[in-house]
Specification:
The protein is mostly helical. The protein has 7 helices and no strands. The protein has one domain. The longest helix has about 40 residues.
Length: about 200
């Protein structure tokens, strides 16, 4: 059993270290600017500078009204709106970008709530596993595995996301919780003496 515990502890440690480093890179080192950004300003500045979902919504509302009015004008003239026009022409381009940013904000806010909830569930399962392990080793280990699986899954890297403050908030939470998970894992390893050297009776 000790060999299994060592293997699982090493795997969990490697995963948590690598994803914590990645979160730190995304937060502070990853370049976010592009040479093409100058063509999309000031809209990108408005999206990245928005401090709340309501602020994004207040920017989206007038653009949506302009786009709806333009669509009505086209329908009166009997001209269909091409997909290319939706992506490249104003006010449709701004409407699409703001709508996408709002949808992304809501998605990341939902993911942030799930992250915090399931991380607490994972820690609770680990605490339960530690207490049960004194009575039944395999049963307690099962709870520990389930708990750390939850923790690692929900603190794993987010690969897609718009450049919004809610995305940054999610990244910051994942970094902090990954770091806390790493510290928690080390405590669990120490409490269980997983890597403790077992010394046999000394020779006389």
């Amino acid at each position: 059993m000790n060999a299994l515990q060592k293997t699982l502890a090493i795997i969990a440690f490697l995963v948590l270290v690598s994803q914590t480093v990645r979160h730190a890179y995304l937060l502070w080192l990853e370049p976010r600017a592009s040479v093409l950004d100058k063509y999309d300003r000031p809209l990108k500045n408005e999206i990245t500078g928005a401090a709340s979902l309501d602020e994004l919504l207040s920017r989206y509302d007038p653009v949506r009204k302009q786009a709806d009015a333009a669509r009505r004008e086209l329908s009166k003239d009997g001209k269909p709106l091409a997909y290319r026009d939706e992506r490249e022409l104003e006010p449709y381009k701004s409407e699409h970008a703001l709508r996408e940013a709002i949808t992304e904000w809501e998605t990341k806010a939902k993911e942030l709530r799930e992250l915090r909830f399931y991380w607490i569930v994972g820690v609770a399962l680990c605490a339960l596993g530690l207490s049960i392990k004194r009575l039944h080793r395999w049963f307690g280990l099962s709870f520990l595995i389930a708990g750390f699986s939850e923790i690692i899954y929900w603190t794993s890297p987010t690969f897609l996301g718009a450049n919004t403050r809610e995305f940054d908030r999610l990244l910051a939470n994942k970094f902090v919780l990954s770091l806390a998970s790493l510290a928690f894992l080390i405590i669990v390893i120490w409490l269980n003496g997983i890597f403790a050297e077992k010394r046999g009776p000394s020779a006389v």
